[in-house]
Every structure is written in structure tokens, then in C-alpha cells.
Design goal:
four-stranded mixed beta sheet, 13 helices
Length: 404
Amino acid sequence: MMRDRPFLMRSHVERGVDALVGLTSTGYDGVDRVALSVVAEAILAQRAGQLTSYSRNRSSYTGLTQYGGRDFTYANVMRAVDHVAGLGLLELHPGFWRSDGSGRQSTFAATAELAALGDVVPRILVRSPTNLIMKDGAKRLIPYRLTRDARRMMSDLSGWTESVKGSEIRVEAPDIDWSENGLVSVPHRTNDGDPITIKITTGDFVFYRVFNNASFAQGGRAYGHWSQSLPKARRAQITIDAEPVALLDFSASHPRMLYAQASIPLEGDPYELPGFERDIAKVGLLVVLNAISRQQGVEAMAHKLAEAKVTGRDRATAAALLSALEERHKPIQDHFYRSTGLTCQRTKAVILADVARQARREGIVTLPVHDEIIAKARHESRIIELMNDAWRMRTGADPVIKRG
């Protein structure tokens, strides 16, 4: 199941789309501008097969004008969402919260009418006063202090964005039809074999970083470019200025970082575990590094096993897998069940930013895709050198780099 797409108050459709989709004016300029953003977010989420989550709690909007601007107040967002829904363009799904803090955020989704118009909507633009996103433990947007380091990251992201905007990024394959309105349909098959089509908007974009648990020390991955929505096989078909690309990634980055931190060599493949398939063991290691308790880890792993159709929601098998991982990785067991994965993700984000920054200085364009970096194939050897240098500088150990 895909996660909901948060309403980040960043995207909007161009003026003129209001008439195209039947969006009337509310009589308030600020609300109308937010309504254009709501329509854009609903279309983007629909293309990705997601819902858009948003808060209907007034306190959730305190300080959030730093994300979308002064128009994005609680009152304006509520009026805009309800107005668009009243026109038959949105389906609203109310959220709920329990006394223990668990629950679900309210969401909205494009109706069939808006979804049908989505393919002919002009470019969806990204505008925001900030390219840093901070979330709390419940994944809600929260304000943050604009420190010197934050400003430095914002400037670095802007430079990265401009370097990519200066190149033509495409996916070259016989079954992909590039349209003139910036919307491209990419045929793809899911793991189950069911045919789906990924719709990507190739117009304006901005790289942004998302941090977690109210801390700049957790998370920090760069998002924003349409290439990140493509599966790996399709990413290999990307071209930069009509040249083929290389896909490069650090192998077993999180466990390798933690072993380096413990000054202990990592022996063998960290995902090889007797009695379990490698892919399942890899998921298990990510679970123990991201969970906040063993109980949560067992529940999450049971869900992953059912999702992968390995077993049903089998807690006993999940617990056995986690026990085997604890035994296999005793040297770093102290990092299990402490959300360490987000801290490792932060280090990885810094390393990729180091690589991209030096590459820009040398005139090399790079694309970040989660933990992977994409560059022209003729620059592959130089990017590998930069990846090795950045990893050693940040971890004090040698990396293992894999090619996609």
C-alpha cells in the first residue's frame, strides 16, 4: 500500500486551469491561490495512485506560512479544500485521532471528473519560500528555525536544482510518447504483473529535503524531480542531454556506516541470513533500524511478510527473523529499535550532496533518486571517485559502490 502524499503547500497549476477544470472563484484572492494548489496536489497524487493528506486542526498551521507563503493559513486552506470539494472536484475523507495519539490524517482525492481532466492540465509548477521540509513524529509539517546551516542547505539545493534545469532530462524508449504539455505516460508492470502507467510531469521542479522527528539530524533525502517516480528499469533509460546514463549506489549503506562507526569490519553480505531469502532479510534489517521498539519491529515485519506474500501476517516468523538479525549483527545491535535508519539516511544525504556539489563545480549534472545518483555514463568513473572520497570523509571507511 502506498503512503499518502502530504499536502506540502508547494505546487500549483497555472492560471487559466481554473476555467478548464470548472474551478470558480471564492471572491478571495488568497483562497483562490490555495485552491489552485489543492487542485495541483490532487492531480499529482492521483497520477501516483495516492491520496493527499492534510490537517483540519487549526494548531497544525501555526508557523507553516514558511512553507507555502502567507496565503496558506488554516482558514484559507479549509475554505479552499471545501470549495473545491463543493464543486465536485475532490472527495474528502475525514481523519480521526485516538487518545493514545494514533489515528489517521484527513485526506482528499481527485474525483473521476478532475482525474479525467488531469491529463490535459498544463504544467504543474512548484513555488515555495523554502526547500526544506520538517515533520514531527506523526509526519505533520512543523515550523523550524532558519539557522546558518539551514540557509546553507537551501542555497545548495537551489544550485542543484538550477544545474538540472539547465539540461534536458528524458526517458528514451519506443513505448514512451513524449507530449507537448509536459505530461508523459510511462508504461510499467508491477511486481504482480498488473499493467500500470506512471504519469510524470516534466515541467518546473525544485529539489527539497524532508527531515523527520523535528530534527535536522534525521532524514534529509532530496526529492522533487520526476525521475524519482520511475522504477529502476526505467531509470536506466534516462538520458541527460541525449546521452545515456550510469546509475550508481552505495551497497548496504546503513549497516556499513554502523560497522564503520563501531570500528569493526563488516564481514560478508549483511543481508545473507540462513533460513531467509536475501530480499526479506534486507527488509528486516531496515525494519530493525527504523523501528522505535522491538514490538513495533515485529508488527512492521509481519506486515512486510504479508505484503510480500511470503506468509500471512505471521508474527512468529517476523520475530524469528528479527532474532536471527540480532544474532548476525551483534556488533551493531545497540542501534536496533532506535530509529537509527533516519540518522543513517541523514549521513547518506550529506554524502550525496557532497558528490553533487563537487560534480557541479566540474560541470557534471547529477540526479538524486532516493539513495542513488544518476549521471552521464561518460562521467561514471569520476562520479565513482567522488562517491569514494565523500564516503571516506564522512565515515572514515571504504564504501562498496554498485552499478544499476
